[in-house]
Specification:
single chain; 312 residues; mainly alpha; 14 helices; globular; binds digalactosyl diacyl glycerol (dgdg); binds chlorophyll A; binds peridinin
Length: 312
């Protein structure tokens, strides 16, 4: 297709730049400027809306392209192969083309809003400047091809199941865990801290398992889960906590999503995460909430998971 061909040209002009970026640099975990959690949540909300409007099949293919690209990483900077670099760009270009332009610009504008204007120049200072300019020039040509192939209306909203066993169980889970949810400091910057003692390649392995799980999820249920998160963001209070009803809808949506993939795919995520998150992290989280609320929530979760497993 046209976007695939354009991605090859983009690769010709941007792979030198890609090789110069130190993808293992811990700086990419930091906020791109002042830490402003509620504004950042707004930007993430725009990404969620864009994801929910995208063609689920193209999202799945983009996830698969990333998984493949992780498999061809080489060298100290963590760069993927030339072919996989092109394949990722093509896949993302197709995702962008599957949503109306305004949804893409809403992401750009809201991310710009949380990004210190000095950030792009600093990024450029870490690589060979002319290679960055060449890459950007090629991106501008690529985006014209994407725009030419872009839809003008969003895809239909998801079909949301109701009265199913997981939905019913989500009510009990949510009743048991909402007090715990209210204890959590959702606006803390602790969630952007590096995992103690873990390198980027080690963490990427666990993220790869999530990407694989995402690529196997039912597309309609993934879209429904994204829509539920968007709605939940709309009802947060000053501390970032969503309403009880929206919290329940998120749990129901995520339970159905988990049930749409094989158990081993879920356990691969759990086991790989357990390798990079040590007990100091979980103990620290536990120390910040009411222990009785956390225990009640955990009990609710372990009951819920049996219902999910039964419909898996
Ligand atoms: C950049 C953008 C990259 C900066 C990286 C910051 C992004 C951080 C994302 C943090 C998100 C946090 C959520 C993640 C989840 C965490 C969970 C815990 O370098 C601009 C200005 C605005 C920059 C900020 C906006 C960036 C938006 C990026 C898209 C959002 C993606 C979402 C990422 C999130 C994660 C994804 C899963 O646009 O951008 C560089 C540009 O900066 C440079 O400015 C441009 C002008 O916009 C343009 O008008 C023009 O002036 C151009 O062109 C210069 O500079 C000139 C000529 O006109 C060209 O023809 C050509 O010759 C060129 O020069 C060659 O040099
Ligand atoms: Mg990403 C984008 C890393 C998995 C879907 N992703 C980005 C970039 C960053 C990144 C490079 C955001 C920061 C930025 O804009 O820098 N993703 C990244 C990693 C992983 C991952 C490390 C781990 C596996 N992504 C992943 C998965 C999905 C996505 C699983 C779902 C399928 N990702 C996704 C989307 C988008 C990203 C939809 C974006 O739109 C965003 C992005 O790239 O926006 C431009 C700048 C970007 C780069 C350095 C890479 C692109 C290089 C272009 C083609 C040429 C360079 C131009 C110039 C020099 C800088 C960019 C200017 C900008 C205004 C366009
Ligand atoms: Mg998430 C999970 C935040 C958008 C899809 N998501 C998580 C949690 C974290 C979170 C609370 C990961 C850390 C963790 O396990 O803590 N998501 C979060 C935010 C946003 C967001 C702030 C922003 C809008 N998510 C989002 C979107 C999608 C997803 C758009 C795609 C539709 N998210 C998604 C999935 C999963 C998450 C599929 C998970 O599996 C993971 C998760 O919750 O795993 C358990 C612990 C979790 C919590 C504090 C909240 C859940 C409370 C449960 C139901 C009861 C508590 C049990 C116990 C006390 C603690 C957990 C024990 C553990 C062994 C299970
Ligand atoms: C400027 C000035 C003009 C010239 C110009 C110019 C530049 C404009 C630009 C630009 C626009 C622009 C847009 C970009 C948009 C990037 C969007 C990224 C979206 C990320 C998402 C992440 C996610 C997911 C995902 C799916 C999940 C939801 C999420 C589901 C269903 C200034 C050059 C025209 C770069 C969507 C993918 C996993 C949240 O206009 O003179 O330069 O860049 O998890 O969805 O699960
Ligand atoms: C524009 C203007 C509007 C019209 C429009 C428009 C276009 C927007 C577009 C577009 C946005 C867009 C985004 C693209 C982003 C591509 C990002 C590619 C990233 C590739 C990576 C590859 C890799 C790896 C990997 C992980 C490793 C690092 C690597 C570690 C730690 C402008 C059309 C709406 C194409 C990250 C995955 C293996 C490098 O808005 O008027 O057209 O395209 O090895 O990580 O090692
Ligand atoms: C300038 C002027 C214009 C011309 C121009 C210009 C240059 C702009 C530039 C540039 C922008 C730019 C951006 C770059 C962005 C790279 C983003 C990489 C993201 C990597 C990640 C990696 C990771 C992980 C991971 C998970 C870990 C955390 C991490 C945990 C818990 C100035 C040329 C346009 C290079 C996210 C995945 C392992 C961080 O604009 O005139 O030159 O470059 O380790 O999670 O540990
Ligand atoms: C233990 C001991 C036994 C008893 C037991 C026990 C516990 C097991 C447990 C547990 C397993 C478990 C699993 C959990 C899994 C969570 C998985 C989260 C996945 C997140 C994803 C994120 C993403 C996306 C997304 C889609 C994108 C890709 C991504 C596309 C196409 C120990 C109790 C049985 C909690 C997939 C969603 C946006 C990456 O076994 O005696 O306690 O918890 O962006 O994909 O866009
Ligand atoms: C298990 C054992 C196997 C069988 C199995 C199994 C099950 C795994 C499961 C499962 C995993 C799972 C995960 C679920 C996660 C639910 C997470 C809910 C999160 C809700 C949030 C709500 C909110 C917001 C929001 C953003 C705000 C904060 C809030 C800020 C900054 C165990 C079946 C495979 C259900 C985060 C969105 C508005 C709180 O593996 O043998 O069954 O379920 O307001 O952010 O303010």
């Amino acid at each position: 297709d046209e976007i695939g061909d354009a991605a090859k040209k983009l690769g010709d002009a941007s792979y030198s730049f890609a090789k110069e970026v130190d993808w293992n640099n811990g700086i990419f975990l930091q906020a791109p400027g002042k830490f402003q959690p509620l504004k950042a949540l707004k930007a993430i909300d725009k990404m969620i809306e864009m994801g929910a409007a995208a063609d689920p099949k193209l999202l799945k293919e983009a996830a698969e392209a990333h998984h493949k690209a992780i498999g061809s990483i080489s060298g100290p900077n963590g760069v993927t192969s030339r072919a996989d670099w092109d394949a990722v760009n093509a896949a993302l270009g197709r995702v962008v083309a599957s949503v109306p332009k305004a949804k893409v610009m809403a992401v750009y504008d809201s991310v710009k809003d949380i990004t210190d204007p000095k950030v792009p120049a600093y990024m450029k200072s870490l690589v060979n400047g002319p290679d960055a300019e060449k890459a950007y020039q090629a991106f501008l040509e690529f985006k014209d091809v994407v725009a030419k192939n872009q839809v003008t209306t969003a895809s239909a909203p998801a079909v949301v199941p109701s009265g199913d066993k997981v939905g019913v169980a989500a009510k009990a889970l949510s009743d048991a865990s909402y007090p715990f949810i209210k204890d959590i400091d959702w606006l803390s910057d602790i969630y952007l801290k590096p995992l103690p003692g873990k390198t980027a390649p080690e963490t990427l392995k666990a993220i790869d398992k999530m990407i694989v799980m995402g690529s196997k999820m039912n597309g309609n249920l993934l879209k429904a889960a994204a829509e539920a998160h968007h709605k939940a963001i709309g009802s947060i209070d000053a501390k970032g906590v969503t309403s009880a009803a929206d919290y329940e809808a998120v749990n129901a949506a995520l339970g159905r999503l988990v049930a749409s993939v094989p158990k081993s795919t879920v356990m691969d995520v759990y086991n790989s995460m357990a390798k990079v998150v040590d007990s100091t992290v979980t103990n620290n989280m536990f120390s910040k909430v009411n222990p009785l609320d956390a225990m009640a929530a955990a009990k609710g979760f372990y009951t819920f998971k049996d219902v999910v497993e039964a419909s898996q």
